Amino acid sequence: MEELDLLKKDWQKNAAFEQVTEKEIYRMLHTKSSSIVKWILIVSILEFVILNGVALFLNDKSYDDFLNSHPFMNFLEKFNYLVIIIFIYLFYRNYKTISVLNSSKTLIKHILKTRKIVTFYIYWNILIGGLAGAMSGIESFNEGYNQGSNRTENTKGILEINYINMTIMALLIMGLVWLFYKLLYGRFLRKLNANYKELKKIDL
Length: 204
Hints:
The protein is mainly alpha-helical. It has five helices and no strands. It has one domain. The protein has helices at residues 2-58, 61-69, 71-98, 104-147, 155-203.
C-alpha cells in the first residue's frame, strides 16, 4: 500500500507540473500573439500615413485635373481610403480583444481571425493596385489617342494591342504589390501561424 501511495503522490506532482507548464506556455504565446497583432496595427497605420503622405507631397495639379475629369478614378481613390481605415479599425479591435483573453480556445479563434483579416487586406491592396493601374493607363491612352491627329486605319488593332499591354501592366503591378505586402506582413503571419500550432497542441 505504501508503494501505491507513493506512486499516486508522484503522479499528482507530475500532473501539477504539467498544468503549470501549460499555463506558462499559454501566457507566453498570448503575450507573443498580442505583440504581433499590435505590430500589425502599427505597421498598417504607418503604411497608410507614409504612402498617402508621399502621394500628397508628390501630388500636382495635373493629377487633380485627371481625377476631376475621371469621376470613377476619383471615387475609387476615396473608397480605397475608407476600406483601409476599416481594416485598420479591425486590426485595432482584434488587438484589444486578444490582449485581454484568458482562454486558449478563444485565442486560437482570434489568431485565425487576424490571419484572415490580414490576408483579405493584402488581397484588397493587390486588387486595387492592379485595377487603379490598369484604369489609369487605359484612360491616359484613350485621351492621348483621341486628341492625336495621326491615326491609322487599323484603329481596332492598335486598341487591342494597347489593352493587352495594359493588362500585362496591371498584372505586373499586382505582382509587385503582392511582393511588397508579402515582405511587409509575411513575417507576422508566419509567427501567428507558429503560435496557432503551439496553442493547438495545448488544446488537445
